[in-house]
Amino acid sequence: MQAQTTHDLDWERDFTSPQSDLTIETGDTVRWTWTDDLPHTVENDTGSTETFNSGTITGLGQTYSYTFTVEGVNPYFCGIHGAGNMSGTITVVDQLSVDEFAASKLLMFPNPVSTELQIQLPNNFNEGTITIFSVSGKQLFGQFVKNDIKDVTLDLSQFKSGMYFIKYQFGEHIETKRLVVK
């Protein structure tokens, strides 16, 4: 574990995905900075790989930092204002080369989604899979994608409202993102 980068996030009401989501490397630190004077917490949500909790902190400019040491997905939220108003996901990956990190040009929209999720795949991907998991880690959907397909539409109309994780695995490239169904 060599990475030791500090990633800064604002922490205030209505701060949610996608601006609150990060993909970082093992050993990196995330520092949340209070940008309002309200009391907040930063704490892991159900299904998080690591356990962290700032406790209640109040005050403009206050900070909480946590260093992530285990590869995995870490949903988090404010225990005072709830996941619907303040939440995000920190995805921790093993160290990536600059080329691998830059190659991630995968786009999915809209997020939050109500019926159809559009996914645009990068031109240089190998065939692979798209998988959707519940926050508890149960696989709910999986689809194999051939390398000649660049746009995928997923019908999510049968999914209940809530938070999920969508995992893309194309060759050696693995990416997990938070998905909200409304």
From TrEMBL:
It comes from the Bacteria. This is Secretion system C-terminal sorting domain-containing protein. It comes from Xanthomarina gelatinilytica. Keywords: Copper, Metal-binding, Signal. Residues 19-92 form the Blue (type 1) copper domain. InterPro entries: BlueCu_1, Cupredoxin, ET_Amicyanin, Secre_tail. Gene3D superfamilies: Cupredoxins - blue copper proteins. SUPFAM superfamilies: Cupredoxins. Residues 108-181 form the Secretion system C-terminal sorting domain. PANTHER family: BLL1555 PROTEIN. It holds the Pfam family Por_Secre_tail. One of its GO terms (molecular function) is copper ion binding.
